[in-house]
Amino acid sequence: MSVAPSSELSELRDILAQAADLARAALVDLGEEGVGAYLGVTADDSCAATHRFEATLPGYRGWQWAVVVAADPESDHATVSESALLPGPDALLAPDWVPWDQRIRPGDLSPGDMLAPVADDPRLVPGYVATGDPEIDDVALELGLGRKQVLSPEGRGDAAQRWFENDFGPEAEMAKAAASTCGRCGFYLPLAGAMHDSFGVCANEMSADGHVVHTEYGCGAHSDTALPTGAGSPMYEAFDDGAIEVVLEAEPKAAAGSEPETDEGSAVEKGSASTD
User: Fold this and answer.
1) DSSP secondary structure string, 82-120?
2) Would the pTM count as exceeding 0.90?
3) Average pLDDT for consecutive 10-residue bins of the chain (276 residues)?
């Protein structure tokens, strides 16, 4: 039986250190499965110690069965206090639990889902609140003030940073390879308000259709893109069928006493081929 290192045995009494069999028997009596090799004992205090056994249960790699035994200073035997299945130093553990509102990511929202903003969301600030006066409220709606909350400067800054760094920003590979930018494209619809100078929406169905793009983004479907000039491919010369060499076989000689070959059609065809 292995025991804890000497540094841990300074307070471990013999009556506690020698209770490994008692600890294993307690696990067996409780009907615990997967009790493997004995791993050692550690002192909890002068009256208690913990014996550990390897757990061989499927899905619990690196876990240990721990049994706490105790003995009063005047006692001549130990008793079992409790047992538990605990992770060891190299145990396979589930990741820390994260609340659902922190796990959700862009793209997780599907039809029918409801997602409320967090309380006191710093991205939103109070907007215009209706007064009940039709003349005032109608004018406010025309000016775009009919919302209870609007984006705060922080909210706009967060959105602008995401749009700048995404696949339709100026640092995208497509933009680096483009000859011109969205800000000069006829398919570019600039946004209003504070985003006007930097962002717009692409209206080209063959490109980033419907996506917010940076004014310095660009692609090969720019409205000023010119069609290629010339015809054919300059990499290959035209095929010259006159360069074919025609090889004719000699007419077989007629056998003695036989009539000569009368396949005039064949002779004419071969002759014409030779003079072509």
Assistant:
1) EEEEEE-TT---PPPP--HHHH--TT---TT---PPPTT
2) no
3) 43 88 94 94 92 94 95 90 93 86 80 77 76 78 74 91 94 92 94 92 92 94 79 60 70 62 47 43
